[in-house]
Design goal:
- By secondary structure, the protein is α/β, with parallel strands linked by helices.
- It has one domain: Response regulator (Rossmann fold), CATH 3.40.50.2300.
- It contains five helices and five strands, in the order E-H-E-H-E-H-E-H-E-H.
- It has a five-stranded parallel sheet with strand order 2-1-3-4-5, with helices on both faces.
- Strand 3, helix 3 and strand 4 form a beta-alpha-beta unit.
- Helix 1 crosses helix 5.
- The longest helix is centred in the C-terminal third of the chain and has 14 residues.
- The two termini are 13 Å apart.
Length: 125
């Protein structure tokens, strides 16, 4: 199955970094959203999105709120979600996992780390 990613971050620069990392590891299909609210709109309008990579700290709808919203919708309950964030405290990681993100990366990261986390998520799906 070809993966199509939804890359969610309020930083244009960070979305570029994630997109370029995805290209580096062989994934070409992705769309971008600048915050959780835009992400939910894109998700509901594009049935081909099958993987979400989101930041935590965003205006309006945070990444954590986005995850909770996705998980509360039957259609997206099993959608793979990877959180890529600067929040590296143990409590933050626990909170994200309790919200049911599939995996977690603390910025900065390398394309190799991104590939490992995506592979781990896909292997457990």
């Amino acid at each position: 199955m070809a993966l199509k990613f939804l890359v969610v971050d309020d930083s244009v620069t960070m979305r570029r970094i994630v997109a370029n990392s995805l290209k580096t590891i062989g994934y070409e299909a992705f769309v971008e959203a600048g915050d959780g609210k835009e992400a939910l709109t894109k998700l509901s309008g594009d049935d081909s999105i099958n993987f979400v990579i989101t930041d935590w700290n965003m205006p309006e709808v945070s990444g954590l709120e986005l995850v909770k919203s996705i998980r509360s919708t039957d259609k997206f309950a099993k959608l793979p979600i990877l959180m890529v964030t600067t929040r590296g405290l143990k409590e933050d990681i626990v909170e994200a996992l309790q919200a049911r993100v599939n995996n977690y990366i603390v910025k900065p990261f390398t394309p190799q780390i991104l590939r490992e986390k995506i592979d781990q998520i896909l292997a457990s799906a």
